[in-house]
Amino acid sequence: MRVLCCLDGTNAEQIAKAAEMLSTIQPLTLSILYVIDIGPRAEMDHLRERFFRSSTQRLPHEQEMLESEKSSARDILNAGLRYLAHAETIEREGRPGHEIVNVAAQWQADVVLICARAQYGGKASIGPKSVGHVARFVLDHAPCPVFLVRQLAREKFPIAR
């Protein structure tokens, strides 16, 4: 079974636990993916072009920003390899939801593992806003089954009736 594991910088351990559960069913071929989100950068470029300068002019620090993003991506993928040592690594740039779906199709994944939402030090949430926009896009557009991984949120229960 070919399993595409989507990392967000906070979820390597959760994804590894889910992959371990799947490995009890049959042998796995794993790939870990991290997408450098260019959306915020593109939005800022659009605003700069609109108000300050043409698109042909580039700020000197933009290359430094890109190198920093790539360095962070390598760190996140290396953290993933600590949990999933035999996995192939894939790094992409673009809109995360689109890139995950495209990589799943190109890599011919049988299953995509993705967390519901990145948890940056916060507690897991339940309810309608518990699934982020990237996970929602992948759930709606993936070319294969999607295994949605959640953090434990037992303290949120029982839910009031």
Describe this structure in words.
The structure is a single chain. The protein has 161 residues and is of the alpha/beta class. The protein has one domain: HUPs (Rossmann fold). Helix content is 42%, strand content 19%. The chain has five helices and five strands; from the N terminus they run βαβααβαβαβ. A five-stranded parallel sheet has the order 3-2-1-4-5, sandwiched between helices.
Furnish the topology, listing elements before pairings:
Blueprint: E1 2-6, H1 12-23, E2 29-37, H2 39-51, H3 62-83, E3 88-94, H4 96-106, E4 111-115, H5 133-141, E5 146-149
Parallel strand pairs: 1-2, 1-4, 2-3, 4-5
Key attributes of the depicted protein:
5-stranded parallel sheet; alpha/beta; 161 residues; Rossmann fold; single chain; 5 helices
- State the fourth-level CATH superfamily: HUPs
- Strand order within the widest beta sheet: 3-2-1-4-5
Q: SSE string, helix = H, strand = E?
A: EHEHHEHEHE
Q: Count the DSSP helices.
A: 5
Give the amount of beta strand, in percent: 15-25%
Number of domains: 1
CATH architecture: 3-Layer(aba) Sandwich
Q: Under CATH, the topology is which?
A: Rossmann fold
